[in-house]
Design a protein that fits this description.
Layout lengths: L1 E6 L10 H10 L2 E8 L2 H13 L3 E5 L6 H18 L4 E8 L7 H18 L3 E6 L2 H7 L7 E3 L6 H9 L3 E4 L9 H9 L5 E3 L21 H12 L3 H16 L9
Parallel strand pairs: 1-2, 2-3, 3-4, 4-5, 5-6, 6-7, 7-8
Helix pairs in contact: 3-4, 8-9
The structure holds zinc ion.
């Protein structure tokens, strides 16, 4: 079994294909998907989707890119659903200084608000971080939440900080790309019980599907690559990362009994 720990199923490009995607994911033994909602429209659709498919779970937050546009308006909606039980995680939130679509100070402000919400609701956080690790590390120091750094593309030193903090590290299709040798070294280093796998659908399709719209079923390719690095079978890698995800996101027992 496999769990796609990070996909955007209810954004405008994907929603029209979602039913076929979910069918194919089921055929590939994907047992749960974390659907990451980044605005009110994708959250509304996500909540409806998870009612139809009891193996799709929703996380929500404004991304660091969008906080200047929707940060203020979306936060209270996320807070309401986080408190009322509609979400299994808060995110993706974090810092992105690579694109810097929103001012750094505003990104930091929202990151801290979402951290506070996670502490209040005891939900895990899904972090997005690009070229901003030092600030993420400093701003979240000492806070007692659980978290995953999604689509990890950082350095070994950064991975070590995540591990020290008790965070999970999630590998996307990027780890299958030809020029990702250093990321593969980091994946080898990360202990199996701290590893998650994700597609980040519709982005970042793995090597054999590059250029196509990504989808949850393609998580198998990332699993197979990581299994090779770890010297275990793809099935084993799938099961271990599924257990890790179930532990972090507290999936109900009908998904996986850990
Ligand atoms: Zn994402």
């Amino acid at each position: 079994m496999f769990i796609d720990s990070h996909a955007h199923l209810t954004g405008p490009d994907v929603i029209d294909h979602v039913e076929e995607m979910l069918q194919r994911a089921e055929q590939h033994d994907v047992k749960a998907i974390v659907n990451v909602c980044t605005d009110q429209a994708s959250l509304d659709k996500g909540l409806a989707l998870s009612k139809r498919h009891r193996w799709v779970f929703n996380a929500a937050a404004a991304t660091p890119h969008d906080v200047s546009k929707i940060g203020e308006s979306f936060f209270p909606i996320v807070a309401r659903f986080a408190r009322e039980g509609g979400l299994i995680a808060i995110g993706e939130t974090g810092l992105d200084y690579h694109y810097e679509h929103s001012p750094k100070d505003l990104q930091k402000e929202h990151l801290l608000k979402y951290v506070e919400l996670a502490l209040e609701t005891k939900l895990p956080l899904i972090f997005h971080c690009r070229d901003a690790f030092k600030d993420l590390e400093d701003l979240t120091k000492g806070a007692g939440f659980s978290a995953v750094l999604h689509c990890f593309t950082g350095t070994l030193e950064e991975a070590k900080v995540c591990l020290e903090r008790g965070w999970m590290i999630s590998m996307s299709g990027i780890v299958t790309f030809k020029n990702s040798a250093s990321l593969r070294d980091i994946a080898k280093y990360v202990p199996l019980d701290r590893l998650l796998i994700e597609t980040d659908t519709p982005y970042l399709a793995p090597l054999s599907k590059r250029g196509k719209m990504n989808e949850p079923g393609y998580v198998i390719e990332t699993a197979a690559l990581l299994a090779g690095l770890k010297g275990i079978s793809t099935q084993e890698l799938g099961l271990i990362t599924a257990r890790n995800a179930a532990q972090l996101f507290s999936f109900p027992k009908h998904i996986i009994d850990v």
